[in-house]
Amino acid sequence: MKVTRIISNTSIVKLTIALLAVATAGWASTPLSPDNFAVLNNNADGSSVSPSVFFPVDTYSFDLTGGNNGSGAGGETDFTWTAASSGTVQFMWSYTSCFPVGEFDGCDLAGYDWAGYMVGGAQTQLTDTDTFGASFSASFHVTAGSVFGWYVGTYDNLGEPGTLTASSLAFTADAGAPVPEPASALLMLAGGIFLTALKFHRINIRAQKKVFVVAFKGSALPLVICSAAIGQIQNAYQGSVVTGQLQLTATTNLTQLSAANIQSAIMAVQSPGPEQPRLRTQLPPPPARQTQTQQNVTAAILPRVGSLAFAANSAATGFDGLTHLDQRQASSGNQFSLEPPNPAIAVSSGKVLQGVNDAIRLFTTAGVPLTPPIASNRLFGLAPAIDRTATPNVYGVYTTDMRVFFDQDTNRWFVLQRSQDEDSSGNPLNQSHIYLAVSSTSDPAGDYHIYTMDTSNTGNPGCPCVDDYPAIGADRYGFYISSNEYSLFDPTSPFFNDATILAISKADLAAGAATPSATRFVMPYFTGYEFTVQPASTPPGASPFLASGGVEFFVSSYPVGFDNNLALWALSNTASLQSPTPNLVLTQTTIPTLAHVPPPGAVPQRSGPLTLGTSLEQIDAGFFSDSRVLSTVYSGGRLYVTLASAVFDSLGHNAAGGLYVVFSPTLRGSVLGATAPVKQGYLAATNNHILRPSISVNASGHGAIAFTLVGNDYYPSAGFVNIDLTPSTPSAIQVAAAGLLPEDGFSGYGPSAACPTCNGFGVARWGDYSTAVTDADGSIWFVSEYIPNAPRTPLANWGTFVSHLQP
Predict the structure, then answer these.
(1) Which strands make up the sheet holding 163-173, listed edge to edge?
(2) Structure pTM?
(3) Which of the residues 79, 194, 287, 316 has the least number of beta carbons within 10 Å of its own beta carbon?
(4) How confident is the model at residue 16 (pLDDT cuts 50, 70, 90)?
């Protein structure tokens, strides 16, 4: 792997432009304009562009980039045209497998991509290795009517694509058929000057390829291997087949639930007895652990970063989603008042399914409600969270950590929650479950198969346990649930035990199988990265990783201290989930990134009118101050990742912000690796704060990062930035929906006449995540927490905003 950086030379660029201006005069009739050529992909997602930023007047240059769709299979990108006459084609060329060219690049290893030219179906390879600053001349002869052009091939569509840069294209017709090409020698000279400047002003570093194995005794510790691609320690884990533990228990119908749940949208929230509000459980991260990679990160200090500007207008449209009033009134009011909000979203075929805490609602993409707010307990066929009509009140299953998902391969909708079980009086028990609803068709308003699994995991050391903060993802073959497993020896005070991954056959879930094929991995807290292991999902139109029997990627961070790495996880042979006895392999390594550190625990919000109390100045930016990975997307062979981090804004203020990282993972043989990040950077807003950023991109790598914006200048608001693969930093912060009031919920107050059971301490809880997804048309949908000027309950005023962006 190499890391490259362009060191600009303004005088060389100006000289090149001047020479090109002279050289290209009178070229209008030359047949070699790249506009005449067509791109053809064969299992690839390559493209061609004219590098106008470098050659502003040379229309006879192009960059042909090959495939990197992440499929793991070979492919080719051709750039061809039919010759109008016979003659000789001349050009200058250079080649790189680093992307983006001209920045701190991610680079593939030599031999995995190659480039050349073709005439009449015969190919001539130019190179399969980066030319490292050199450019070359080449020529070939074509006959009238023959197809000719250039190609870039790839062995596995992984690890960054190859890019062939061709410039100074010239055509010399055979005798009797001249084609104008004045100043071609001068043009070649100019192109050579520029390419030489471009290539030689790089710093190139390659890592040596070494592999060794260290075996540990005992199944609890991972196998350790050194990764060839990045020179990092590699760990392998064994899973256990748990087919039969996830069981089909019921079938429900969302339309029928809607009809039984019609109620006034502004029904007064009155109930027998005290309100009994509940904080959504946020368990503390694991204790700090000195990892091997952290030994080189001593008292790391984040640099002062350039704060993002604020756009005057937003390019997104949207509508108000579920509010606290909606969530509290679902199930005829037999719900708890819950904070913080944890919004999730899924989109397909003109429908938007939103979930928050323990309620869901279906909308059209225009924001028209198709159902009333429905308690998720009703969807799962469970008793109400609390039966307020009984005296005393009777407690049911307390579901939390809402996740919703739409799977493009099976056309199924998913709703996931977990519970720590309790008795009918609300006392916690030392057992837990997950609840998974899977639509039986592509209609989100129809039938759902309901699955339940006991997650107490009593056979695991340190358990019985609860699976906290479940996160979901999918590849071609499997649906994945990762969780942080906490011990319930004392159910009132759980402590971190390990991380888990549950892999389930998508085909079985889509078919409504009684006991879907499943494998569970338990990752002991060994390296420091076994916490919030975020699974990836692939947007519509992008290819999942299909080599190695199918691979699902995960990413995690060291959450409780300074670090400058992320952990990359690969679960391979996922196609075996289609068999009764799946045989999966989980591998982990680390990749270097920008430094990150947990954000401040609490940040200020803009002052404003309050209803519940007299003063609530702060909301939490990470209640236990951890920098966990918050979202992971796999598209175009790259992983797009966001995580929370402290930042120093442009004025040097310590603020809550985020870090985004984009890199290409590779799994070649048994060796897991990654390129250096092709793009990474901080998210910071001067004098304000960015909370819980979540990313989604489309198949072309265009997307958005959504978050809550809050601070001295903003009530909690729904914000976002655009992101793509260009070398530039994300665009200005756009406010999709401005908060209109301060957060004024019970979690920030101590006991009072209005809320005798409140036990806050001046910092209001805010959600643990936002959600962004991609629709089939390539547009981005995201949901963020904010404070609307809308009907509220006595105890809380939070809301959500659903945004739509065409990047």
Answers:
(1) 47-49, 62-65, 163-173, 87-96, 136-142
(2) 0.88
(3) 287
(4) very low
